[in-house]
Design brief:
The chain is of the alpha/beta class. It folds into two domains: 14-93, Orthogonal Bundle (434 Repressor (Amino-terminal Domain)), CATH 1.10.260; 100-291, Endonuclease, Chain A (2-Layer Sandwich), CATH 3.30.870. 51% of the residues lie in helices and 11% in strands. The protein is built from twelve helices and six strands. The protein has helices at 14-30, 34-40, 45-53, 60-69, 75-93, 105-116, 135-145, 151-164, 182-186, 192-205, 258-274, 278-291, and strands at 119-124, 175-181, 211-216, 230-234, 243-247, 252-255. The chain has a six-stranded mixed sheet with strand order 3-2-1-4-5-6, with helices on both faces. It is elongated.
Amino acid sequence: MSGWKNAGNRVSTVLGRRLGGELMRLRVASGKSRPDAANALSAHQTKLVKMESGWVPMRDPDIRALCEFYGLADKTLLQELLDLARLDRERRKAKGWWKDFPSPGALSEYISMEDVATSIRTWQPTFIPGLFQTPEYIRSLVVGGGHWEDPEEIEPIVSVRQKRQQRLFGDRPLHLYAVVWEATLRQLVGGAEVMRPQLAHLLEMSKLPNVRLQVLPFRSGTHPCAAGPFSIISFAETEAVDVIYADTLASSIWIENQSESARYRGFFEATTRLSLSPHDSLRLIEEIRQEM
């Protein structure tokens, strides 16, 4: 059974979808049809569909032409759309090495964000965060999930995740602040023979100056992040809003909204206050490793 999805050249990004949605909203509000808007660009209707769906980077002249056709008089809003388009183009350009690997669409989009991010705050109640996982742990997760059985399908997943981990090193290392539930450390993914080196690797990675790791212990009880895992992705651009990425069993959720981002930051910060200090977290990890 293959778990890969071929998305062809339909590469959408969070920013692209947001920009496309804004342009569609302006078109509908102006009473224009898609064929009308396409004619204004001297283009086929397919181009407008791709723009409004966020599948293609958008040129400033096209955005200006559409906004003029829709009767947009708000110059501030126009500039915001142009800034959004610029950020989207820059993030699309960042897509590089992962194009050589087969991967699900949602993961490709996440990696493109991760590659240009300056920092990520992640809450993980089920698994060791991907940027800390050992190859053996990754293989055990994939096999245990029941979606991939053929080694030819499993190994590319391992390669992608290991390649991603390079973001924690180099000239512009990603700052990673991870909070994990105690259950992630005790769950015997692949058995004790896999978990012992995985926890040892986690301890080593925590020594990096750009990594902060905390453990939420069982004794903390109820906490604000009980609903599920999520990551808060931050960027260097002052105008960029934090992007929230949350996984569910059936899909991935993207949120790029100032108020919602603030809510997730609040959830994360409240959970960090309930968690062990970094020093005590590492001591607990070592105790669990020794028990295994």
